[in-house]
Amino acid sequence: MGPKQSDRSKVTVGILVKLREYKSDLNNLKSEIKRIASTNLNQVARDELLESGMADAAAVSADQRGRLMMSTERLNKSSDRVRDSRRTMLETEELGVSLLQDLHQQRQSLLHALGTLRFYTLLNHTLFHK
Question: How far is 65 from 57, CA to CA, in rounded Å?
Fold first, then answer.
């Protein structure tokens, strides 16, 4: 294996490690989004129950609206991170596929060269070593 193949192997391994990291990040972000969404729903339900007993409905509504806006903003940011991670993962996957295709073509070339070498070695042996 030459220096170029060794370098490509290192790059391929690095890409696979990064791909696993991105998949892990994606799963973590999905879990965080579910947790935030669940927490928000529970908080909204609690707020609605408490709201009926509070004297100042306008203040509760404004407070609730503020919390919902903050939660929505956090959810949007998390969604953006998930989208960015997914895009990066897909780009990395495309690069990995391309590298694997290149390695396959190089392997085929080497196998062909080996077959040709064996043929001429056998031919040389047959012609000159009778």
Answer: 12
